[in-house]
Amino acid sequence: MNVEVAANRVKELSDLLHHYNYLYYVKNESAVSDYEFDQLLKELEGLEQQFPDLADENSPTKRVGGDITKNFETVKHKYPMLSLSNTYSKEEIVEWEERIKKTIESDIEYVCELKYDGVAIGIRYVNGIFHSAVTRGDGTQGELISPNVRTIKAIPLKLSAPYPDDFEIRGEIFMPLQEFEKLNEERKKNELALFANPRNTASGTLKLQDSGIVADRNLDCFLYGLYQDRAEQTNHFDAVSFAGEMGFKIPRLEEKMISKVSNVDGILDFIAYWDEKRKDLPFEIDGIVIKVNSYRQQEELGYTAKSPRWAISFKFKTERVETQLQSVSYQVGRTGAITPVANLEPVYLGGTTVKRASLHNAEQMEKLDLHEGDYVFVEKGGEIIPKIVDVNEDKRAEGARVIQFIAHCPACSSVLAKEDGEAQHYCLNEKACPPQVKGKIEHFISRRAMNIDGLGAETIDALVEAGFIRNISDLYSLSYEQLLSMDRMADKSVRNLLDGLEASKAMPFEKVLFGLGIRFVGETVSKKLAKAFKSIDAIISASYDALVETDEIGEKIALSISNHFKDQDNVDLIQQLKLAGLCFEKEDEGMDSDLLAGLSIVISGTFNQYSRDEIKKMIEMNGGKNSSSISKKTSILVAGENMGPSKLKKASDLNIEIINEEEFLNRIKK
Ligand code: IVH
Question: How large is the C-alpha radius of gyration of the chain?
């Protein structure tokens, strides 16, 4: 096949597949069988492989993902992404409508919509082609997650004409309930931690580096707003309908997912309808959004600092269900903190089946006055784990016994301790209580700490049980043979792990410090300590007073640190880790200088030694100014890997100095 013939066929296949995709995912219609669709897709894939120049970034083959993004670029929103002010009662809606009527004299039409519970997204299209997708972020700037959003099949990559040349459309990406349950079932089978709820899962999924995994998770999206400099339409409803004509998935009028009403009664009817019907939706909503329809009236009403005055949301009350308490079990965390957990008769709540609820601590249990076999009310608020909010005392069995908080550790039987003024009970057998030993190692290797690949919770359990490791320093003396003898560890995974351990020796001091898992010493505190004391030796020998005087270190943290190092075993552990080669001193990064004063600096691409955020921080600490786009005013472009060629060209056209990461670090070394 010559290129020309191939190009024609690629275009033909691509149009056809886009169309079938639209019918299936936006219109719920299947025009061809899955088999036929796959055949066409395979043919297209084949051609794209054979003629790489014909592969378009918006080809239907991109729906399956595969692109890896290391760090998402931060970009500024052209139109700020505001939020909605929330109301929780019908009275507030009535008041809102009255306020509106004070400003607008003429008739007002309202559009009622569902408030989809997912993640906001802004997608730009240029000449009818998907251009970029950005998360809400802080409302002013968000993260560029285009490769992940391209995999969402309800979002068109090419639009049906007519379309504006350049515009943005906003909507909500969510995970349908069925997908959420399917995903968790799979995770359960593979003994992976379960996801908490569809919204968090959608949000986490969109931040994955591997768009192939995003594609597998089958996210969905409803679009709810058009943003352009000059709109053809004069009102919101028409704009949404127009979006539908261009190929976007919009709420279905015939299913009352969107409705035009002319007064507050219409709004309240819509709310009442969906308060009842929302259980039947295949996705979660957390309320209703009401918008003034006319753009002219919207303008007249204007905005507050955070939200438009012409729109408001009504949030549904959190759902509450009753179920029976089966038992209370107790979990031991890595710091020895004991968390009581209620095991419940499984009950359906807000789209998922709930079997367990956190009881937080003894105080909480006392407050609820929990008795054996009690019927309890469970709510799922915004938080991850559902909670017990009340007990139905009327249903309590006669003679039911009060549930007492345990006195001994469920894992090692040590006597539990609770300090005055603290709510949590602790097991103090830090060095031998198995969940604490394992938990500390898991924490040490976790992504936010030492980020050691190739070691899961199960392998840690097995290594501890086999007696190969008792603490984090033992990790560094594991041998190839020991690891190979473990279940499910083959040559490749063993090498992977050993490489991971070796690489961790280059981790900066603050990560090591955080990895130690000292109680109350989280990521931020670790950074503050590393910056203030510069080395572990200085921290170990610091007095309580010196610690308390440090920025953001309070009494509780200071006491915890000084107690930690009063224990000689903990000091010895540091010694062993030093011998293993870990970093216990803060490297001089040339922080805090005015070496970059007066310079406007743009960073782009991905970096090896530091994250983009870290580099940005260094720029600020050395007096420079971060800027997100290249202009005549830019002084320096710090170019990372994979940066776009257009940026590079623009910078060199404007004669801007371009340096790489290493040169940048050299500049700020004193
Ligand atoms: S309109 C200026 N319509 O709710 C406000 N937002 O606090 C523009 N949301 O994160 C938003 N469903 O992503 C609008 N039908 C809907 C919505 C909706 C969900 C989300 C939105 C934003 C939050 C607003």
Answer: 29
Please tell me the distance from the alpha carbon of residue 272 to that of residue 52, in angstroms, as a whole number.
Answer: 54
Quick one: which atom of ligand 1 is closest to the CA of 84? 7
Q: How many CB atoms lie within 10 A of CB 543?
A: 10
Taking the C-alpha atoms of residue 361 and residue 591, their distance in angstroms, rounded to an integer, is 42
Q: Taking the CB of residue 311, how many other CB atoms lie within 10 A of it?
A: 23
Q: Which of 27, 62, 70, 115 is catalytic?
A: 115
Tell me: the pLDDT tens digits for 421-453? Answer: 788 899 999 889 999 999 999 999 998 899 898
The answer to whether residue 73 sits within a structural domain is no
pTM check: above 0.70: no
Shared domain for 238 and 332, answered yes or no, is: no
Q: Identify whether the C-beta of residue 317 lies closer than 8 Å to the C-beta of residue 287.
A: no
Known catalytic residue at 115: yes
Phi first, then psi: what are they for 567, rounded to 5°? -80, 115
In a domain, 191, yes or no: yes
Residue span of the structural domain in which 18 resides? 3-64
Query: What is the distance in angstroms between the CA of the first residue and the CA of the last residue of the chain?
Result: 61
pLDDT per residue as tens digits for the range 545-597 = 999 998 878 898 999 999 999 999 999 999 999 999 999 998 765 457 888 98
Pocket test for ligand 1, best of 77, 79, 84, 303 (most atoms within 8 A of CB): 84
- Decide if 139 contacts 81 (C-beta within 8 A): yes
Q: What is the CATH number of the domain that holds 568?
A: 1.10.150.20
Q: Which of 417, 445, 464 is the last residue of a domain?
A: 417
pLDDT of residue 191 exceeding 70, the answer is: no
